[in-house]
Design goal:
189 residues; alpha/beta; Zincin-like; three-stranded mixed β-sheet; 44% helix
């Protein structure tokens, strides 16, 4: 792996791989650029490909920046406040819902997950994002129920969705659509 300095794009991470079958270019959410290519293709050919895709990289960076600007932002102090609140409330709320609906789950942990509202392990332990506290109560409950249903079905099969729908009284699609209108906030540094 090597990092080159491109005159327009700045730093570009270049990775030659024996397993790679084609030249690939990606832009990470941070705006960092990665160029990977098969060893046999050679760096010169890969850099030529990069040159042909400079406009695409710049356009992708603009899209990422626009998307980031649309996301809600939250301060570190607010994150700590949310952490304290959710550690006090969400495990109990989860256990109460589990008991009411007849689920058996393991540990309930609270994390600062930035990509998911929650997850369920194969051991039926639940991990919930502290950012659930930014959602209305009924959506917090929906996420918890969704994860509790994973203690029965560790997938997103039709049986899983039928169970979720039964638990939320036929409102799964409506609640899921509403949940998709919310975004996990970006933490201001």
């Amino acid at each position: 792996m090597a990092t080159i300095m491109h005159k327009i794009l700045g730093e570009v991470e270049c990775v030659a791989s024996a397993r790679s079958r084609s030249i690939r270019l990606s832009v990470k959410p941070s705006g960092a650029v990665r160029l990977s290519y098969p060893r046999q293709a050679g760096q010169r050919r890969a850099l030529s490909f990069l040159e042909s895709r400079v406009e695409w990289v710049e356009a992708t960076r603009r899209k990422i920046a626009a998307r980031q600007a649309e996301l809600p932002h939250i301060s570190r102090a607010e994150v700590e406040r949310l952490r304290d609140t959710t550690r006090r409330t969400l495990p109990d709320k989860t256990r109460q819902l589990a008991a009411r609906l007849g689920f058996d789950c393991g540990r309930v942990t609270i994390r600062a997950a930035r990509t998911k509202w929650g997850c369920c392990t194969s051991e039926n332990n639940l991990s919930l994002s502290l950012f659930l506290a930014t959602l209305p109560d009924h959506l917090q409950e929906y996420v918890i129920i969704h994860e509790l249903c994973h203690t029965v079905h560790h997938n997103h099969s039709a049986a899983f969705h039928a169970l979720v729908d039964r638990c939320v009284e036929g409102k799964e699609k409506l609640l899921d659509r509403e949940l998709r209108s919310y975004r996990i906030p970006v933490i201001d540094e």
